[in-house]
Design a protein that fits this description.
41% of the residues lie in helices and 25% in strands. The chain is an alpha/beta fold. The chain folds into 2 domains: 115 residues, Rossmann fold (3-Layer(aba) Sandwich), CATH 3.40.50.10440; 126 residues, Hypothetical Protein Tm841, Chain: A,domain 3 (2-Layer Sandwich). The longest helix has 17 residues.
Length: 280
């Protein structure tokens, strides 16, 4: 009988409760300072990164091939036969390609590597639904298909306090970032079908941009039952306020409040508020 594991990288922002409930294995990306490397959510927290921003903005890197191989070895030793891996968008990170390269030459496990073309709970909701399908049917193909189905029905939107970090990381153009800062434009950033960041809408001012996030959820939930997540990076109070408003809307099946991973904090800086909307 097949024994099936689900792996996510650390950017899916699944809560610890969810990880433990569904026995989801997490492969950490890495945060790199001049004094060393730290595994995402294992050796370093978002708060530690915020506190060090003034002295150094770190870089990030993929999960190490060693960590990846060790996790595969562990699963094989535990009797697993099949592995579903869901990764951060290949348009944002090389994580998927690295894992696929190792999986292609790894013997003893059958793999399905899924590019979420998303991040945070944009991947997280699909992973949860895949885990539920596994519990129900214990069928590898059904779980894979369920994950892919949910990914198609899920969108991510977020706003940042400053465009400086996205600009430094090459996630948006330097000219666009500089003009945006001068005009106090807070774009709503989303991810397109290729899994790449784009400006969904340009809003002037922080409070109006957060209000626009609420309006996006409100519009999506008008006629359709949805799962939603509110994620933050050093913006707890503002995001909690948004979360409370969202929970009061009709057609909300599941509402999740989470904190973005340290790796994502590096690229967005403090002050991020994001939403994920997934048709239930």
């Amino acid at each position: 009988m097949a024994k099936i594991a689900i792996i996510s990288d650390s950017t899916s922002d699944l809560t610890l409760e969810t990880i433990e409930k569904y026995n989801i294995r997490i492969l950490p990306l890495r945060v790199i300072y001049t004094d060393g490397e730290y595994r995402d959510r294992v050796d370093i927290t978002p708060e530690e990164i915020y506190s060090r921003f003034k002295e150094e903005i770190p870089t990030t890197s993929l999960p190490s091939p060693q960590d990846t191989t060790e996790l595969f070895n562990k699963l094989k030793q535990e009797g697993y036969t099949h592995v579903i891996v869901v990764t951060i968008s290949s348009g944002i990170s090389g994580t998927m390609n690295m894992i696929r390269n190792i999986a292609d030459s790894y013997e003893g496990l059958s793999f399905e590597i899924i590019d979420s073309k998303s991040l945070t709970m944009g991947a997280g909701f699909a992973i949860i639904e895949g885990a539920k399908e596994l519990e129900k049917a214990h069928d590898f193909e059904k779980a894979v298909n369920r994950i892919k189905e949910v990914l198609k029905k899920t969108k991510v939107y977020y706003v940042v306090q400053t465009l400086e970090y996205l600009k430094k990381g090459g996630r948006i153009g330097k000219v666009e970032g500089t003009i945006g800062e001068l005009l106090n434009i807070k774009p709503i950033i989303s991810i397109n079908e290729d899994g790449v960041y784009y400006s969904y809408k340009k809003i002037r001012g922080r409070s109006r941009s957060i209000e626009e996030l609420f309006e996006i959820i409100k519009e999506k939930a008008k006629e359709t039952l949805v799962n939603i997540a509110v994620a933050h990076g050093d913006a707890f109070e503002e995001s909690q306020e948004l979360f409370k408003k969202v929970k009061g809307l009709k057609n909300i099946k599941e509402a999740v409040f989470t904190q973005i991973s340290p790796v994502l904090v590096v690229h967005t800086g403090p002050g991020l508020i994001g939403i994920v909307v997934s048709e239930a």
